[in-house]
Design a protein that fits this description.
The structure is a single chain. Helices cover 75% and strands 0% of the residues. The protein is an all-alpha fold. The N terminus is likely disordered. GO terms for molecular function: manganese ion transmembrane transporter activity. InterPro entries: Ccc1_fam (IPR008217). It catalyses: Fe(2+)(in) = Fe(2+)(out).
């Protein structure tokens, strides 16, 4: 037997085809052997089950956009309010009034916005999916010709593209998903996705992270702590939380934790500096300082 063919004739047993978590770790470290082992899960001679994360790897990742989107916006906008008030040398009461008003109003707005945008995207994809299904039912030859042309754009010969598409056409669900991705650039909808959950995650993340800059102004003033120290503590808490938010994002996107955290920190720092400067300039211009 040809050794090249022998190397791939491995019996597949029931179970996941790879350990996605280990595959990602192997890629991050550049370990080729670890990558091979991660992809050989489920083949005879390799362990099946156990630590495999293939099936559930995306469950938490579904909401990472809403978590980061809501959390980052919450902590930056609230801290911007705090920085502006500090720059304008206004009282602690003003910080709390404006801070909590921003927290609730913007949080609701962000959550609702995420819900509506996710719902609109889902409805659009499902509408396009129904249209493509209708076209398949009524003119399959035309759909196959479009896909053959699309595959030829990827470098397939006409013969190979025709062969592949003819095979795919025997599996209507797969063919439909394939058309969505390659013809329209849309990902097939996931029945487990929930726009309202995205909205709730965004709202809760906004409120949770947005509350951080205000904690110093709730705890320290009753202890007669100087306002400058209170602002400094708020800055430290906010910076640590922003960096932590970047680390959380990196865990889902397989990026450098330090780089991701630093980018979050830089983003928040620029916004806060601008807000503080505006508060100071307007306070001086209006004769408040």
């Amino acid at each position: 037997m040809d050794p090249c063919h022998e190397s791939v004739e491995l019996e597949v047993v029931d179970g996941p085809g790879r350990d996605l978590g280990k595959a990602r770790d192997a890629y991050s470290s550049g370990d080729v052997e670890a990558s091979k082992n991660a992809h050989d899960v489920g083949l005879v001679g390799y362990p099946v089950g156990g630590d495999s994360k293939e099936e559930h790897a995306g469950e938490g990742g579904k909401y990472v956009k809403s978590l980061v989107y809501g959390g980052l916006d919450g902590i930056i906008t609230t801290f911007a309010v705090v920085a502006a008030v500090a720059g304008g040398a206004l009282s602690t009461n003003v910080v709390l009034i404006l801070g909590f008003a921003n927290l609730v109003a913007d949080g609701l707005s962000m959550g609702l916005g995420d819900y509506l945008s996710s719902q609109a995207e889902d409805q659009f994809v499902r509408h396009e999916m129904k249209r493509e299904k209708w076209e398949m039912d009524n003119y399959m030859e035309g759909e196959k010709r479009e896909m053959i042309e699309k595959y030829m754009e990827y470098g397939f010969t006409k013969e190979h593209a025709t062969e592949v598409i003819e095979i795919c056409a025997n599996y209507p669900d797969f063919f439909l998903d394939n058309m969505l991705v390659h013809e329209l650039g849309l990902m097939p909808p996931d029945d487990n996705d929930s726009p309202w959950k995205n909205g709730v995650v965004t709202f809760l993340a906004f409120c949770l992270f947005g509350f951080v800059p205000l904690t110093a102004y709730i705890i320290l003033p009753p202890l007669d702590v100087d306002s400058n120290i209170t602002f400094a503590v708020s800055c430290v808490l906010t910076a640590l939380t922003m960096f932590g938010l970047g680390v959380v994002k990196a865990n889902f996107t397989n990026q450098s934790k330090v780089k991701s955290g630093s980018l979050m920190l830089m983003n928040g720092g620029i916004a806060a500096a601008a807000s503080y400067a505006i508060g100071y300039v307007f306070s001086v211009a209006l004769g408040e300082q």
